[in-house]
Design a protein that fits this description.
about 325 residues; alpha+beta; Rossmann fold; DNA Methylase, Chain A, domain 2; 2 domains; two-stranded parallel ribbon; globular
Amino acid sequence: MKAQQTGADIFPRDIDVVTGGFPCQDFSVAGKRLGFDSQKDDKGQIRTDDKPSEETRGKLYYWMKQVIDITRPKIFVAENVKGLVNLGNVKDIIQQDFASADGNGYIVLPPKVLHAGNYGVPETRERVIFIGVRRDALRPEAIKALESEVIPVEYDPYPIPTHAGNIKDESLLPAVTTRDVLKGLKEPMETADESQRYYSGAKYLRNGSQGQTEINLDGMGPTIRSEHHGNIEFRRLSAEHGGKQAAELAKGLKERRLTPRECALIQTFPPDYPFVIRKESERRFILSPSGAYKVIGNAVPPVLAFHLATRLEQLWPKYFV
């Protein structure tokens, strides 16, 4: 963005869709929730200036807005943590700023919190989604529908739930469980998959902090967070620490935390997608297990992204000439 501002021609034209997930740490309930007043800059370093700016981590969404100004996509989709909607007027400010892109050229729909479990993801992850549509590209009837106080279902770009994650509806498919996606996976010592072999060896802590619980194989998994080793949930706890996988423990399987591969499967990444990557002929990593946990935890679940994309694909002919 800075290069573009100094005269470089960085961004392409004739863009249909821009997607982005601006930094969430300053809006997350897992953090200090400083929002726009983040103490860190765009590189995650402690700020040395007195006042927040566009380079404050909590205001980096504005850079996405500037990309939208330049590329003028027909649609943009922005994602962040659910905690943002409960943080003062942050949601409204971001919605207004996005709407002002390209000279107030966008209809930005009321942001919606989507529960990943309602779309076939075995996870309780909830994220707020902002969707904006360029007004001058829309059909007149689409403008009328999207500016209605209640958007007609046939014009609503948010995907319709397919699974009963956190909603009760017998017409929906049952929620996908962690057992569904982890079954048949070899234990770390039995596989050549580096994303399964190398994982957090952080010991169990009795202080009740994040990550000291065992996942429920017969339910949805916890939100996979962008965390360091000690905050990664356990695939299996020992009986001493309250583990409930008696059959696995009886086989001699040891207490351990989730591997990057298991976190990725819960996030619905393909089972062969490489995360932990070692350098050839070296012990060092191109992407370490710690780095892999962060990449996976920062991601939008691919299956949820698929539902968003296919919904927009369905509506494209109704929206645009």
